[in-house]
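Sample A.
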Amino acid sequence: MLGRKKLFLIINLVFFLSGCGNLTRLRECEKLASIGTELANQTMPNLLEKDQEIIYLFQQQFLTTSEQINNENWRDSKILDYSSNLSQIYQEYGTLTQEFISALHRKEREKALSIQTKLNDLGTKQVQIVEEINNYCQVN
């Protein structure tokens, strides 16, 4: 549903840490990377799972991660912007995943395919934000 490449990019957040020069930026880059890595570790092993209960767990994990990001006290203004964007994406993942599950239950194939397209588009948006975060955190 979400694609291995897209969720795998979350893990790449870890690799930007060496370039963070500012201590606040470094800590916040590490924290955001930690949150993203935790989500990836929870979802990656079962990414191709078709069991609706597992998909429901994905939905819950996205919503929980979104909330976790929102509950952080980000001091770096750019990290705050990036974290807000990621949180919104994870919230949308959660919402769309619930809609996807509902469409499957109602056997609404076209709607499920439409939602899957939206999820893929959201994945592209996520990749762009992760790349921006990587670039920002690598600046000395």
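Sample B.
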Amino acid sequence: MSQQSSIRPATGGESVGKRESFQPPRGSRLDYLDAVRAIAIIGMVLTHIGMYAKVPVVVEFVASGRASITFAVLAGISAVFMARSASRRAGHPDPNTITRDGQMTIVKRSLALLVAGLLLSAISFGPMVILTTYSVLLLLAAVVLKIRRTSVLMILTALAAVITPLLSFGLRTIFPPVDELMVPSVLELTSVEGLLANVRVLLLYGFYPVLTWIPFLLAGLVLGRVVTSDKPRFRVMLGVGAGLAAISYAISLAVRFFTTFDAERRAAYEIYRQDSIARQDSIAHLGFGGAAPEYSWMQTESGTTRIDDIRSLLVAAPHSGSITEILGGIGVTAILIACMALIWRFAGPYLKPLATMGRASLTYYVGHILVLDVLLLLGLAGVDTELGLGVMLLILVVAPMIIAHFWFRKFKRGPLEWCMHKVAYLGVGEQGTKA
């Protein structure tokens, strides 16, 4: 029996096809993707509140890196929806063909995000802001979506996951970083050198270097094509994602514990730690009580792999940009999306608060950084004044869910989402539904 596909936005003239029994119910939005968006930002929140509460080490390790990777992959999926929306408006028979309007919609949204990211980085006292990298990835999507064959995108994703970390390693070995900047900021735009520093950290040296984040965009474009197809194979997505994650993390663990890699890292870190203690190099403002923390194999990197050991390319440390981190992170994102799609049919009503908050993902992301800034200004950061994990979760997870619930009773979009919509569709007719 044929029914309208439940995993595509419901618009006039939608194609009709068979629905797999495990697909989520039809709606004007893909709610399960909104839920994944919310999970991604909650994961980032958990990695950002170390100054205010003690987050269990394992929880922070699981969220670190993987949450922001999921956020970036979802950027690719969103780009697919924007392109398909423009194709529908133009009456194009091939939904995988991006029109000029579709490209301009993505470009305008990208530029708006770039401005937002530069401004937010200037006022963020703690969290590294991902929005500038996110914006450049969207800009690339406007070009890459010209490729209509999904199989070609899959091949490009696999190649990029291996080649971009190698290229980054080589370039940083030949041209070591010269900037202390970690993410681009509008404050650096007062001079030519500041502008160049912004470009360098954005593309290669920063916490979210575009070069090694390209695979996440490409993976998002592939997954976007999958979830918008007439018969999305979520179980296949789940299997492929699980395989990618398992193989990548197994290789990483093997390099760590069956070679001298981890022992050498531990010894080098202990020298640094003892030196910092001897010099009373206090970092109490980071919540460590005046001494560098003890070494842990779960520690986060600063956006790139180390260039003193090529084995780091196979170690899936969070925010390292290694081959295994990239492939493992893509696998985890595929697992999240597939699992959420599979369980939405029977658990959707219980997960609706999560999806509602995810509808305002940009507002939520920016808002949580502003709230953290306010708490810091109020003197509520650090080991002596920390609020506790429960209080922080109430402020940064529960409260936004409640606010989103009442907001969307009256409004169609979140505040910043409304602004982005107006910018993206400036001079373009009303669009179809987007994810």
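B remarks: Residues 3-14+30-424 form one domain. Strands lie at 3-4, 16-17.
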